[in-house]
Known about the structure:
Chain A is an alpha+beta fold. The first copy, chain A, has 9 helices and 5 strands, in the order E-H-E-H-H-E-E-H-H-H-H-H-H-E. The first copy, chain A, has 2 domains: 104 residues, Glutaredoxin, CATH 3.40.30; 106 residues, Up-down Bundle (Glutathione S-transferase Yfyf (Class Pi), Chain A, domain 2). In chain A, helix 1 links the parallel strand 1 and strand 2.
Amino acid sequence: MTPIITAFAQSPDRGRGLARDMRVRWALEEVGQPYQVRLVSFSEMKQAAHLALHPFGQIPTYEEGDLCLFETGAIVLHIAERHQGLLPADAKARARAITWIFAALNTVEPVILDLTTAKLLEGDKPWSQERLPLVEERIRTRLGQLSDYLGDADWLEEGFSAGDLMMVSVLLRLRASGLLDEYPNLWAYVARAEERPAYQRAFAAQKAVFTSRQQADGHQP
Amino acid sequence: MTPIITAFAQSPDRGRGLARDMRVRWALEEVGQPYQVRLVSFSEMKQAAHLALHPFGQIPTYEEGDLCLFETGAIVLHIAERHQGLLPADAKARARAITWIFAALNTVEPVILDLTTAKLLEGDKPWSQERLPLVEERIRTRLGQLSDYLGDADWLEEGFSAGDLMMVSVLLRLRASGLLDEYPNLWAYVARAEERPAYQRAFAAQKAVFTSRQQADGHQP
């Protein structure tokens, strides 16, 4: 059964791959699972039909027959558990990889999203310029710890996993800020992930939405 | 094998149950798994021995033989997958319950933690009073959506799950702010969870650390 995911009809980043459907596309490409995409507009995302799939009115959602999931962490974990390629077979190694999915989403992403909030939602406030360095310092604390942990390893654990997929997806949000450049091993880690053929296929697919204005197109990994 | 978790030797909330070890204690109590606790001070949390267990220098950690996990989401999921009582047996219902763990941690908790940041880390800044309503409105958006979804149901899906455990744990951070009072069904949802015997045992155990100054005590659910 081909799963159907939702994505922005008009992405805020115009196809730079930062919208959260990219994470799910990437996971599906890594495991070789074909999928379909249904594009939704911002107004549709807040209407009853979409809220029935996603209570918080966001994208992506993931439909597979009568199963409907939301939250990229849950969707990527679901894909990783049902296919080979994103989680190690050993139970302990698997639990470690899953730990990094949560670390990306609950420890690293929140401080990074604060920067987006500070710039996009509070950029015109009188406190904006004075507050920004505090937000950036909180990001540096987390990046420093992650950088120390990673050291000169290629991936967070033995071999690329769904944990790396999620961590890289979160770190990519920082590229435009220049903060990632302060941590050469993290910069190289992100670049290493971007070189993966599955990443590149997913990136091209999400970008195509904005270049060719395709609607509800299918993708064959 | 009895797992060992870490918790604050001196909790910032003096035993009100908001520290993240509470989530893990609660999960272990729900499934009837005895555990041991190792208390760590704030300075120990930033030292190499603890950073080897938790790269971001936080609590809790979870040690089970040579497996070491961090991130409450990962730990609770690990416990839920290996015992009965926190996830439904049906695969689809299970995926939905796991979705709520991620929703709690990645969609609801970040806006709630912003309030803690605004009050504790930025409470003395010149923008503090003017900015607070913006932070609270972002919380209300999420609470309103969650309240609409929950309606008059007892739990987020059919029967209490690890998803409810995590969502309630996140919502409890709001009690002192009064924001939860604006959503009677969410208030009742949290109260319903607090009535669970497993919650009460976990709450008593974490509180005992601060009343009796026990060190490295064992708890038998």
